[in-house]
Amino acid sequence: MADVIEKVEVLVSSPSRNYVTLRLTTRDGIVGLGDATVNGRELSVAAYLRDHVGPLLIGRDPGRIEDTWQYLYRGVYWRRGPIGMAAIGAVDLALWDILGKRTGQPLYALFGGRVRDRLATYRHAFGWDLPALLDQVDAHLDAGFTNIRVQSGVPGLEVVYGVSRETVYEPAGRAAAPAEEIFDAEAYLRHMPGVIAGVREHVGEGVGLLHDAHHRLTPIQAARLGKALEPVGMFWLEDVTPAEDQDALRLVRQHTTTPLAIGEVFNTIWDCQYLIQNRLIDYIRAAVVHAGGISHIRKIFALAEVHGVQAAPHGPSDVSPISLAASIHLGVATHNFAIQEYMGYPERVHQAFPHAWHVAEGHLQPGDEPGLGVELNDELHSADDYEAAYLPIARRRDGTLTDW
Ligand code: EZ4
Ligand code: CO
To answer: What is the whole-number distance in angstroms between the Cα of residue 327 and the centre of ligand 1?
Structure first.
Protein backbone atom coordinates (compact mmCIF):
# COMPACT_ATOMS: atom_id res chain seq x y z
CA MET A 1 0.00 0.00 0.00
CA ALA A 2 1.31 3.45 -0.87
CA ASP A 3 2.42 5.66 1.98
CA VAL A 4 0.37 8.80 2.69
CA ILE A 5 1.16 12.28 4.00
CA GLU A 6 -0.20 12.51 7.53
CA LYS A 7 1.20 15.69 8.98
CA VAL A 8 1.96 19.11 7.49
CA GLU A 9 3.87 21.65 9.60
CA VAL A 10 4.76 25.18 8.55
CA LEU A 11 7.54 26.47 10.80
CA VAL A 12 8.35 30.18 10.86
CA SER A 13 11.33 31.16 12.95
CA SER A 14 14.45 33.22 13.10
CA PRO A 15 17.68 31.40 13.94
CA SER A 16 19.56 34.72 13.41
CA ARG A 17 17.52 35.48 10.25
CA ASN A 18 13.98 34.55 9.19
CA TYR A 19 13.17 31.21 7.56
CA VAL A 20 9.98 29.42 6.61
CA THR A 21 10.34 25.64 6.69
CA LEU A 22 7.81 23.02 5.61
CA ARG A 23 7.93 19.64 7.31
CA LEU A 24 5.85 16.74 5.96
CA THR A 25 5.53 13.48 7.89
CA THR A 26 4.13 10.31 6.33
CA ARG A 27 2.18 7.46 7.91
CA ASP A 28 5.34 5.34 7.63
CA GLY A 29 7.17 7.97 9.67
CA ILE A 30 9.29 9.47 6.90
CA VAL A 31 9.99 13.19 7.32
CA GLY A 32 10.55 15.49 4.34
CA LEU A 33 11.80 19.08 4.61
CA GLY A 34 11.18 22.00 2.28
CA ASP A 35 12.32 25.63 2.33
CA ALA A 36 9.63 28.25 1.70
CA THR A 37 11.55 31.42 2.51
CA VAL A 38 10.88 34.52 0.40
CA ASN A 39 13.01 37.30 1.82
CA GLY A 40 10.81 40.05 3.31
CA ARG A 41 7.55 38.25 2.49
CA GLU A 42 7.96 35.20 4.74
CA LEU A 43 4.52 35.31 6.36
CA SER A 44 2.67 35.35 3.03
CA VAL A 45 4.22 32.04 1.94
CA ALA A 46 3.58 30.59 5.39
CA ALA A 47 -0.11 31.56 5.16
CA TYR A 48 -0.39 30.22 1.59
CA LEU A 49 1.00 26.88 2.76
CA ARG A 50 -1.01 26.73 6.00
CA ASP A 51 -4.34 27.92 4.67
CA HIS A 52 -4.46 26.63 1.11
CA VAL A 53 -1.88 23.94 0.41
CA GLY A 54 -1.41 22.01 3.64
CA PRO A 55 -5.00 20.74 3.86
CA LEU A 56 -4.78 19.39 0.28
CA LEU A 57 -1.67 17.36 1.03
CA ILE A 58 -3.12 15.27 3.85
CA GLY A 59 -3.81 11.75 2.61
CA ARG A 60 -1.88 12.14 -0.67
CA ASP A 61 0.73 9.62 -1.83
CA PRO A 62 4.13 11.35 -1.27
CA GLY A 63 5.57 9.34 -4.18
CA ARG A 64 3.38 11.20 -6.70
CA ILE A 65 5.78 14.13 -6.91
CA GLU A 66 5.09 15.32 -10.47
CA ASP A 67 1.35 14.83 -10.07
CA THR A 68 1.35 16.89 -6.87
CA TRP A 69 3.35 19.62 -8.62
CA GLN A 70 0.85 19.73 -11.49
CA TYR A 71 -2.07 19.64 -9.04
CA LEU A 72 -0.75 22.60 -7.06
CA TYR A 73 0.21 24.54 -10.20
CA ARG A 74 -2.51 23.76 -12.74
CA GLY A 75 -5.19 23.16 -10.16
CA VAL A 76 -5.11 26.81 -9.18
CA TYR A 77 -6.52 29.42 -11.50
CA TRP A 78 -3.97 31.99 -10.23
CA ARG A 79 -0.67 30.76 -11.57
CA ARG A 80 2.93 31.82 -11.10
CA GLY A 81 4.18 34.57 -8.77
CA PRO A 82 6.87 34.35 -6.10
CA ILE A 83 4.59 33.43 -3.18
CA GLY A 84 2.68 30.58 -4.80
CA MET A 85 5.74 29.19 -6.59
CA ALA A 86 7.83 29.18 -3.40
CA ALA A 87 5.01 27.31 -1.66
CA ILE A 88 4.91 24.72 -4.46
CA GLY A 89 8.70 24.62 -4.35
CA ALA A 90 8.69 23.81 -0.63
CA VAL A 91 6.24 20.93 -1.13
CA ASP A 92 8.29 19.61 -4.05
CA LEU A 93 11.54 19.68 -2.04
CA ALA A 94 9.89 17.85 0.85
CA LEU A 95 8.47 15.15 -1.48
CA TRP A 96 11.85 14.58 -3.15
CA ASP A 97 13.41 14.40 0.33
CA ILE A 98 10.87 11.72 1.28
CA LEU A 99 11.59 9.76 -1.91
CA GLY A 100 15.31 9.84 -1.18
CA LYS A 101 14.80 8.65 2.37
CA ARG A 102 12.36 5.93 1.30
CA THR A 103 14.84 4.58 -1.26
CA GLY A 104 17.93 5.23 0.87
CA GLN A 105 19.50 7.30 -1.93
CA PRO A 106 21.00 10.78 -1.90
CA LEU A 107 19.01 12.89 -4.35
CA TYR A 108 21.85 13.31 -6.84
CA ALA A 109 21.72 9.55 -7.38
CA LEU A 110 18.01 9.75 -8.19
CA PHE A 111 18.71 12.57 -10.68
CA GLY A 112 20.86 10.18 -12.70
CA GLY A 113 24.07 10.26 -10.71
CA ARG A 114 27.09 12.50 -10.81
CA VAL A 115 28.32 14.24 -13.95
CA ARG A 116 31.05 16.00 -11.97
CA ASP A 117 33.14 15.11 -8.96
CA ARG A 118 32.68 18.45 -7.22
CA LEU A 119 30.63 21.59 -7.69
CA ALA A 120 32.20 24.99 -8.34
CA THR A 121 31.04 27.76 -6.07
CA TYR A 122 31.61 31.46 -5.56
CA ARG A 123 31.85 33.47 -2.37
CA HIS A 124 31.08 37.11 -1.60
CA ALA A 125 33.75 39.71 -0.94
CA PHE A 126 32.91 43.32 -0.17
CA GLY A 127 34.79 46.26 1.16
CA TRP A 128 34.11 49.92 1.56
CA ASP A 129 37.41 50.62 -0.19
CA LEU A 130 39.83 48.54 -2.25
CA PRO A 131 42.16 47.48 0.62
CA ALA A 132 39.19 46.24 2.69
CA LEU A 133 37.81 44.41 -0.35
CA LEU A 134 41.17 42.80 -1.09
CA ASP A 135 41.37 41.54 2.51
CA GLN A 136 38.14 39.60 2.00
CA VAL A 137 39.23 38.41 -1.44
CA ASP A 138 42.47 37.10 0.06
CA ALA A 139 40.60 35.35 2.89
CA HIS A 140 38.49 33.44 0.33
CA LEU A 141 41.52 32.58 -1.78
CA ASP A 142 43.35 31.35 1.33
CA ALA A 143 40.34 29.14 2.14
CA GLY A 144 40.66 27.52 -1.31
CA PHE A 145 37.90 29.32 -3.22
CA THR A 146 38.68 30.40 -6.76
CA ASN A 147 35.58 32.38 -7.76
CA ILE A 148 34.64 35.58 -5.95
CA ARG A 149 31.86 38.14 -6.24
CA VAL A 150 33.32 41.59 -5.59
CA GLN A 151 31.24 44.57 -4.40
CA SER A 152 32.60 47.87 -3.19
CA GLY A 153 31.65 51.20 -1.71
CA VAL A 154 31.26 54.20 -4.03
CA PRO A 155 32.67 57.66 -3.24
CA GLY A 156 29.82 60.07 -2.60
CA LEU A 157 27.35 57.36 -1.52
CA GLU A 158 26.77 56.67 2.15
CA VAL A 159 25.59 53.09 1.78
CA VAL A 160 25.79 50.62 -1.09
CA TYR A 161 23.71 47.47 -1.33
CA GLY A 162 25.79 44.34 -0.83
CA VAL A 163 28.54 46.23 1.00
CA SER A 164 28.86 46.46 4.74
CA ARG A 165 31.38 48.40 6.80
CA GLU A 166 31.51 45.35 9.07
CA THR A 167 33.02 42.00 8.15
CA VAL A 168 29.70 40.12 8.27
CA TYR A 169 26.73 41.05 6.20
CA GLU A 170 23.03 40.23 5.97
CA PRO A 171 21.04 41.87 3.16
CA ALA A 172 17.76 42.13 5.11
CA GLY A 173 17.62 44.59 8.01
CA ARG A 174 15.36 43.89 10.99
CA ALA A 175 12.85 46.73 11.21
CA ALA A 176 9.16 47.33 10.67
CA ALA A 177 9.91 49.04 7.34
CA PRO A 178 12.73 48.80 4.80
CA ALA A 179 15.75 51.08 5.19
CA GLU A 180 16.19 53.59 2.38
CA GLU A 181 19.41 54.42 0.57
CA ILE A 182 20.51 56.66 -2.29
CA PHE A 183 21.95 55.12 -5.46
CA ASP A 184 23.76 57.22 -8.07
CA ALA A 185 24.42 55.28 -11.26
CA GLU A 186 26.95 57.79 -12.63
CA ALA A 187 29.05 57.70 -9.44
CA TYR A 188 28.85 53.91 -9.46
CA LEU A 189 29.84 53.62 -13.14
CA ARG A 190 32.78 56.00 -12.72
CA HIS A 191 34.15 54.04 -9.77
CA MET A 192 33.40 50.35 -10.19
CA PRO A 193 35.49 49.35 -13.26
CA GLY A 194 38.65 50.68 -11.57
CA VAL A 195 37.91 48.74 -8.39
CA ILE A 196 37.36 45.48 -10.25
CA ALA A 197 40.48 46.07 -12.37
CA GLY A 198 42.35 46.60 -9.08
CA VAL A 199 41.09 43.24 -7.82
CA ARG A 200 42.21 41.56 -11.05
CA GLU A 201 45.63 43.11 -10.75
CA HIS A 202 45.89 41.81 -7.19
CA VAL A 203 44.71 38.23 -7.81
CA GLY A 204 46.19 37.69 -11.26
CA GLU A 205 44.65 35.40 -13.87
CA GLY A 206 42.87 32.18 -12.97
CA VAL A 207 40.47 33.61 -10.40
CA GLY A 208 36.84 34.03 -11.48
CA LEU A 209 35.56 37.53 -10.72
CA LEU A 210 31.83 38.22 -10.56
CA HIS A 211 29.89 41.41 -9.89
CA ASP A 212 26.21 42.09 -9.14
CA ALA A 213 24.59 45.38 -10.22
CA HIS A 214 21.19 44.55 -8.64
CA HIS A 215 19.04 45.49 -11.63
CA ARG A 216 19.76 49.18 -11.17
CA LEU A 217 21.23 50.30 -14.50
CA THR A 218 19.60 51.44 -17.72
CA PRO A 219 20.40 49.30 -20.78
CA ILE A 220 23.00 51.72 -22.11
CA GLN A 221 24.61 52.13 -18.67
CA ALA A 222 24.79 48.35 -18.39
CA ALA A 223 26.40 48.15 -21.82
CA ARG A 224 28.97 50.74 -20.74
CA LEU A 225 29.80 48.74 -17.62
CA GLY A 226 30.10 45.47 -19.54
CA LYS A 227 32.41 47.10 -22.06
CA ALA A 228 34.54 48.76 -19.40
CA LEU A 229 35.01 45.39 -17.69
CA GLU A 230 36.06 43.49 -20.81
CA PRO A 231 39.80 43.86 -20.11
CA VAL A 232 39.24 42.33 -16.64
CA GLY A 233 37.82 39.12 -18.15
CA MET A 234 34.82 38.73 -15.84
CA PHE A 235 33.27 35.37 -14.98
CA TRP A 236 29.99 37.28 -15.20
CA LEU A 237 28.14 40.50 -14.67
CA GLU A 238 24.87 39.89 -12.81
CA ASP A 239 21.49 41.62 -12.82
CA VAL A 240 22.60 44.66 -14.79
CA THR A 241 19.08 45.75 -15.77
CA PRO A 242 15.56 45.06 -14.39
CA ALA A 243 14.95 41.35 -15.02
CA GLU A 244 11.45 41.71 -16.44
CA ASP A 245 12.54 44.10 -19.22
CA GLN A 246 14.05 41.29 -21.20
CA ASP A 247 14.87 43.08 -24.46
CA ALA A 248 17.13 45.37 -22.46
CA LEU A 249 19.65 42.53 -22.40
CA ARG A 250 19.63 42.38 -26.20
CA LEU A 251 20.96 45.93 -26.23
CA VAL A 252 23.58 45.10 -23.59
CA ARG A 253 24.64 42.01 -25.57
CA GLN A 254 25.09 44.03 -28.75
CA HIS A 255 27.77 46.07 -27.02
CA THR A 256 29.75 43.68 -24.88
CA THR A 257 31.23 40.21 -24.64
CA THR A 258 31.17 40.29 -20.83
CA PRO A 259 29.07 37.24 -19.84
CA LEU A 260 25.64 38.09 -18.41
CA ALA A 261 23.71 36.39 -15.59
CA ILE A 262 20.15 37.14 -14.47
CA GLY A 263 17.05 35.52 -13.03
CA GLU A 264 17.19 35.30 -9.22
CA VAL A 265 13.74 36.90 -9.15
CA PHE A 266 12.25 34.51 -11.73
CA ASN A 267 9.82 31.87 -10.56
CA THR A 268 8.81 29.84 -13.61
CA ILE A 269 10.22 28.53 -16.86
CA TRP A 270 8.05 31.11 -18.62
CA ASP A 271 10.02 33.93 -16.99
CA CYS A 272 13.23 32.39 -18.33
CA GLN A 273 12.05 31.25 -21.77
CA TYR A 274 12.63 34.41 -23.83
CA LEU A 275 16.08 35.12 -22.44
CA ILE A 276 17.19 31.51 -22.88
CA GLN A 277 15.73 30.92 -26.33
CA ASN A 278 17.19 34.16 -27.62
CA ARG A 279 20.53 33.48 -25.95
CA LEU A 280 20.43 36.90 -24.29
CA ILE A 281 22.14 35.58 -21.15
CA ASP A 282 24.93 33.14 -20.38
CA TYR A 283 23.75 32.06 -16.92
CA ILE A 284 20.26 31.57 -15.51
CA ARG A 285 20.08 32.43 -11.79
CA ALA A 286 16.67 31.09 -10.67
CA ALA A 287 16.80 29.47 -7.21
CA VAL A 288 15.42 25.97 -6.69
CA VAL A 289 12.84 26.93 -4.08
CA HIS A 290 11.74 30.16 -5.77
CA ALA A 291 11.25 28.46 -9.14
CA GLY A 292 8.81 25.80 -7.98
CA GLY A 293 11.27 23.29 -6.56
CA ILE A 294 13.36 20.51 -8.04
CA SER A 295 10.71 19.23 -10.48
CA HIS A 296 10.27 22.59 -12.18
CA ILE A 297 13.81 23.93 -12.13
CA ARG A 298 15.03 20.75 -13.83
CA LYS A 299 12.85 21.77 -16.79
CA ILE A 300 14.43 25.24 -16.77
CA PHE A 301 17.89 23.65 -16.76
CA ALA A 302 16.89 21.36 -19.64
CA LEU A 303 15.62 24.31 -21.69
CA ALA A 304 18.83 26.17 -20.94
CA GLU A 305 20.90 23.18 -22.06
CA VAL A 306 19.23 23.23 -25.47
CA HIS A 307 20.24 26.87 -25.96
CA GLY A 308 23.75 26.81 -24.55
CA VAL A 309 22.85 28.64 -21.34
CA GLN A 310 24.28 27.44 -18.02
CA ALA A 311 22.61 27.09 -14.64
CA ALA A 312 23.96 29.13 -11.72
CA PRO A 313 21.32 29.34 -8.98
CA HIS A 314 20.93 32.08 -6.40
CA GLY A 315 22.47 31.17 -3.02
CA PRO A 316 22.28 34.01 -0.50
CA SER A 317 21.59 33.54 3.23
CA ASP A 318 17.83 33.78 2.57
CA VAL A 319 17.95 30.56 0.54
CA SER A 320 17.96 28.15 3.51
CA PRO A 321 20.38 25.22 3.87
CA ILE A 322 17.48 22.97 2.76
CA SER A 323 17.10 24.70 -0.57
CA LEU A 324 20.86 25.01 -0.97
CA ALA A 325 21.11 21.23 -0.45
CA ALA A 326 18.68 20.69 -3.34
CA SER A 327 20.78 22.99 -5.51
CA ILE A 328 24.00 21.13 -4.67
CA HIS A 329 22.45 17.71 -5.44
CA LEU A 330 21.26 19.11 -8.78
CA GLY A 331 24.63 20.74 -9.32
CA VAL A 332 26.63 17.53 -9.30
CA ALA A 333 24.05 15.74 -11.47
CA THR A 334 23.18 18.39 -14.10
CA HIS A 335 25.45 18.73 -17.12
CA ASN A 336 24.95 22.46 -17.76
CA PHE A 337 25.12 23.53 -14.11
CA ALA A 338 28.06 25.95 -14.02
CA ILE A 339 28.42 27.26 -10.48
CA GLN A 340 26.53 27.61 -7.19
CA GLU A 341 26.52 30.89 -5.29
CA TYR A 342 27.40 30.27 -1.63
CA MET A 343 27.08 33.39 0.46
CA GLY A 344 27.43 31.38 3.68
CA TYR A 345 25.37 31.47 6.87
CA PRO A 346 25.77 32.61 10.45
CA GLU A 347 26.90 29.70 12.64
CA ARG A 348 23.47 29.46 14.26
CA VAL A 349 21.90 28.68 10.88
CA HIS A 350 24.28 25.77 10.33
CA GLN A 351 23.35 24.46 13.77
CA ALA A 352 19.60 24.90 13.28
CA PHE A 353 19.78 22.97 9.98
CA PRO A 354 22.47 20.26 10.43
CA HIS A 355 23.45 19.31 6.87
CA ALA A 356 25.43 16.67 5.02
CA TRP A 357 26.46 19.11 2.27
CA HIS A 358 29.79 20.71 2.88
CA VAL A 359 32.70 22.61 1.41
CA ALA A 360 35.81 20.66 0.39
CA GLU A 361 38.79 22.29 -1.29
CA GLY A 362 36.81 25.33 -2.34
CA HIS A 363 34.00 23.27 -3.88
CA LEU A 364 30.57 22.09 -2.71
CA GLN A 365 29.71 18.46 -2.02
CA PRO A 366 26.18 17.13 -1.39
CA GLY A 367 27.23 14.38 1.02
CA ASP A 368 25.77 10.88 0.87
CA GLU A 369 22.85 11.00 3.28
CA PRO A 370 19.52 9.84 1.82
CA GLY A 371 17.30 12.58 0.37
CA LEU A 372 18.43 16.18 0.78
CA GLY A 373 20.60 15.30 3.76
CA VAL A 374 19.39 18.17 5.94
CA GLU A 375 17.77 17.89 9.36
CA LEU A 376 16.05 20.33 11.61
CA ASN A 377 17.33 21.02 15.12
CA ASP A 378 13.86 21.81 16.49
CA GLU A 379 15.06 23.47 19.65
CA LEU A 380 17.48 25.86 17.96
CA HIS A 381 15.28 26.41 14.95
CA SER A 382 12.28 27.47 17.00
CA ALA A 383 14.11 29.33 19.77
CA ASP A 384 13.73 32.75 18.14
CA ASP A 385 10.49 34.16 16.79
CA TYR A 386 10.10 35.77 13.41
CA GLU A 387 10.97 39.45 13.35
CA ALA A 388 10.06 41.62 10.39
CA ALA A 389 13.14 42.19 8.19
CA TYR A 390 13.37 43.80 4.78
CA LEU A 391 15.82 44.37 1.98
CA PRO A 392 16.61 48.09 1.69
CA ILE A 393 14.94 50.33 -0.86
CA ALA A 394 17.10 52.50 -3.11
CA ARG A 395 16.18 55.88 -4.54
CA ARG A 396 17.91 57.99 -7.15
CA ARG A 397 18.97 61.49 -6.17
CA ASP A 398 15.67 62.86 -7.48
CA GLY A 399 13.77 60.61 -5.06
CA THR A 400 12.42 58.08 -7.57
CA LEU A 401 12.90 54.42 -6.83
CA THR A 402 15.52 52.34 -8.58
CA ASP A 403 14.88 48.75 -9.55
CA TRP A 404 16.40 45.81 -7.81
O1 EZ4 B 1 19.52 40.54 -3.34
O2 EZ4 B 1 19.38 37.64 -1.31
O3 EZ4 B 1 23.05 37.44 -5.65
N4 EZ4 B 1 22.63 37.73 -4.58
C5 EZ4 B 1 21.82 38.75 -4.30
C6 EZ4 B 1 21.20 38.88 -2.93
C7 EZ4 B 1 19.72 39.18 -3.05
C8 EZ4 B 1 18.96 38.86 -1.80
C9 EZ4 B 1 17.49 38.79 -2.09
O10 EZ4 B 1 16.78 38.23 -1.04
O11 EZ4 B 1 21.58 39.54 -5.18
O12 EZ4 B 1 21.84 39.87 -2.19
CO1 CO C 1 22.10 38.83 -7.19
So the answer is: 16
